[in-house]
Design goal:
The protein is mainly α. The chain has a single domain (55-212), classed as Nitrile Hydratase, Chain A, CATH 3.90.330.10. It is 48% helix and 10% strand. It contains 12 helices and 4 strands, in the order ααααααββααααββαα. It has helices at 6-17, 23-37, 43-57, 60-71, 73-81, 83-88, 123-126, 131-134, 136-144, 146-152, 189-193, 198-202, and strands at 100-104, 109-114, 162-167, 173-177. The strands form 2 sheets. A two-stranded parallel ribbon has the order 1-4. Strands 2-3 form a two-stranded parallel sheet. α4 packs across α5 (73-81) and α9 (136-144) crosses α10 (146-152). The chain binds fe (iii) ion. Fe (iii) ion (FE) binds at residues 115, 117-120, 168.
Length: 213
C-alpha cells in the first residue's frame, strides 16, 4: 500500500520550481508566443527550423566537410583557399556561411573560434551553437586566456603549440579543421565524419580518437 508523504511531496514541488527556465529562455518564449499570436509565424514552422538545425544540419555537415578534407588533398586545398566556394560543392552554403574561412590545426598550431561581440557562428554547417559559445565568460576569456579556457575543456595544449584565436563577425565565420587521428588509415569519409566532434570544429577539442566511432 502506498502512503502519501507530505514532506516528500513538498520537496518534489520545490525541486520542480527550482528548474524554471532562464531569463533568456523566457524572453525567447515570449517573443515566440507574440509572433504566433500576431500570425507572423506558425508554431510548426518554428519546430521545423529548430529540428532542422539541431537534428539534420549540425554538426554533421561540418563533419562531412572535415572528413572530405582529410581524404582529398585537392579538396582540402580548395577549402583552405576559399571555404565558401568549397562547401558549395556539397550544397551546404546558406545563412551564416556566405563568408567562411577554414583554418587547419597542425602539430604546432591550434585554432580556436569565438565571437567576442555576440554569437556569430557557421549555423549552416555546424547547426545550433552551444550555450557556452554565447556566454559572456567564453567570449571574453577565449581571447584573454585561451590556454586556460582550453584546459577547462580538457585540451592539454603543450607550450610549444601556438594558439590562434579567430574572432567571428557577421561577415566572416570560421571552421576549424582538426587533425586526422592516427589509426584511421583506410577509413571512408562516412566513418571518419562520425569521429569529428562539434567542439573540434570550434577549437575547444583537439585530439580526436579513432575509437570514438
Ligand atoms: Fe556575433
Amino acid at each position: 500500500m502506498s502512503t502519501f508523504d507530505s514532506k516528500h511531496a513538498a520537496g518534489l514541488h520545490r525541486h520542480i520550481h527550482s528548474h524554471l527556465p532562464s531569463d533568456a529562455a523566457l524572453r525567447v518564449k515570449t517573443l515566440e508566443s507574440l509572433a504566433v499570436e500576431k500570425g507572423l509565424i506558425a508554431p510548426e514552422t518554428i519546430d521545423a527550423w529548430v529540428e532542422a538545425y539541431s537534428e539534420h544540419i549540425g554538426p554533421m555537415r561540418g563533419a562531412t566537410v572535415v572528413a572530405r578534407a582529410w581524404c582529398d588533398p585537392a579538396f582540402k586545398a580548395r577549402l583552405l583557399e576559399n571555404g565558401t566556394d568549397a562547401i558549395r560543392e556539397f550544397g551546404f552554403e546558406g545563412n551564416a556561411t556566405g563568408h567562411l574561412k577554414a583554418v587547419e590545426n597542425t602539430d604546432d598550431t591550434h585554432n580556436m573560434v569565438v565571437c567576442t561581440l555576440c554569437s556569430c557562428y557557421p549555423f549552416s554547417i555546424l547547426g545550433m551553437s552551444p550555450a557556452w559559445y554565447k556566454s559572456a565568460a567564453y567570449r571574453a576569456r577565449a581571447v584573454r586566456e585561451p590556454r586556460a579556457v582550453l584546459a577547462e575543456f580538457g585540451v592539454d595544449l603543450p607550450e610549444d603549440v601556438a594558439v590562434r584565436v579567430w574572432d567571428s563577425t557577421a561577415e566572416l565565420r570560421y571552421l576549424v579543421v582538426p587533425q586526422r587521428p592516427a589509426g584511421t588509415e583506410g577509413w571512408d569519409e562516412e566513418r571518419l565524419a562520425a569521429i569529428v566532434t562539434r567542439n573540434s570544429m570550434i577549437g575547444t577539442d583537439r585530439v580526436l580518437r579513432a575509437g570514438a566511432a
